[in-house]
Amino acid sequence: MGYSNMERKWMFRLVFISLVCVFLMATSLNLELISSLKINSIFQIFSSRVTANETSPYFAEAEINQVPPPPAHHPVPKLAYLISGSRGDLEKLWRTLHALYHPWNYYVVHLDLESPVEERLKLASWVEEHPLFQNVGNVFVNKKSNMVTYKGPTMVANTLHACAILLKRYKDWDWFINLSASDYPLVTQDDLLYTFSDLKRELNFVEHTSRLDWKATHRAMPLIIDPGLYRTTKSQIFWVTPKRNLPTAFKLFTGSAWMILSRAFVEYCIWGWDNLPRTLLMYYSNFVSSPEFYFQTVICNTPQFIPTVVNHDMHYISWDIPPKQHPLTLSLNNTAKMIRSGAAFARKFKQDTPVLDKIDKELLGRRKGSFTPGGWCAGKPFCSKVGNPTKLKPGPGAERLQSLIATKVGDWPRQHTDDMNC
C-alpha cells in the first residue's frame, strides 16, 4: 500500500510538471508569434516612411547610402600661393606679395633658414602690423623656417609643408601656386581669377616630359646627399657612390619646378592614400634637382590625374642654349617677349630692376608700395580697404592669358598620344 501511494504521488507530480511545461511552451510560441507580427507591422510602417522620404532621420543608413552631392564651387575660384625666399630676398618678397595680393586668395610667405633672423622677424612684423592683412587674415607667415637647397629635396619638402598649412588653415581654395621672391606677375589677379573662372577646377598646369636625355645619367642615376635635411646651415649637395639604375616600378618625368596644382591633387600628395607620393618622396630624397621631377612623376604615374594635366607652367622663363642650372635674369630687353607669351608669371628678376617698374606701370597699373588694383579696391588711399572681393575688373592681361590657355587646354579632357607626355 505504501509503495502504491508513493507511486501515485510521483505520477501526479510528473503529470503536473508536464502540463506546466506544455503551458509555458504554448505561451512562448504565442508571444513569439505576436512579437513577430508586431515587429513586422512596425517594420512595414517604418519601411513605408523611408520609401516615402529617403532622408528620414530614423535610419542613418539612409543618409550614408546616398551619393554625396558634388562640392559647391563659388563662381570665382580661390588661389593659394606659396611665396618663398632666402637670404637677401626680404624686399623682393614683399614687393612680389603686394603685386600678387588679392583679398579673395590665400598666401603663405616663407624665408628659409639661410635668411638672417632679423629678416625673418621683420617679415613677420610687417605682416602682423599691416592693417589690411590683419583685417582680411589671408596672409600667413611660416615662422618655422625650413632649410632649402634648390638642387636637393628640401625644396620639395618646403613646398609640401606650405601645401599642408594651406589645407589645414583654409578649406575653400581651388588651386595652389608656388612662386619665389624672384618671380613676378604679368597679369593682375583679376585677370587671373577671371580667366580661371571658366576652367575645370580639376586641371593641373605642370610642364612635363618623359624624355630625360642627359638628365638620365646626370640626375636620375647619381645618388646625392642634401645637407639641408639634417643641418641648420646651408651647404651644397654632395655625391655618393655607387650610382643606381633607372626605376622600373614607375616612369620618370621631368619639367619645371613652378606649377599650378588643383586642390584635389595637392590633397593626394599630402595624404598619399595609395602610398605613391610617399614612395616617390623617399626615392627623390637622394636625387639631383628633385623639384624638377617630383610632382611630374607623381601626377604622370597616377591614372586618376593623368587626364587633368596641362603641359605648361604659366611662366615666361628665358634659358641659355643649351639650358643651364638656372634661367637667365630678365631685363627690359625681354619685355616684348614676356607680353607676347601670354604667361601669368615670369622669372627670374633682380631686386628693383627697371623691368619691374615697367611691368607695374604698363601691365599691372600698380603704384610703388601699393597693391595691384582690382575690383575689390576701396578706401582712400585706393586699395587701402576691401570692397567686394569677388568683383573682378579684367583687363588686357586676361585676353593674353586666355589665348595661351586656349592653345594648351583645348577640348578637355584630351587624349594624349605623345609618349613623352603623361
Automatic annotation (TrEMBL):
Membrane topology per the entry is:
Single-pass type II membrane protein
Cellular component aspect of the GO annotation: membrane
Q: Which Pfam families match?
A: Branch
Location relative to the cell: Membrane
Keywords, comma-separated and alphabetical: Glycoprotein, Glycosyltransferase, Membrane, Transferase
Give GO MF terms, alphabetically. Answer: glucuronosyltransferase activity
Listed name of the protein: Branching enzyme
Q: Which organism is it from?
A: Handroanthus impetiginosus
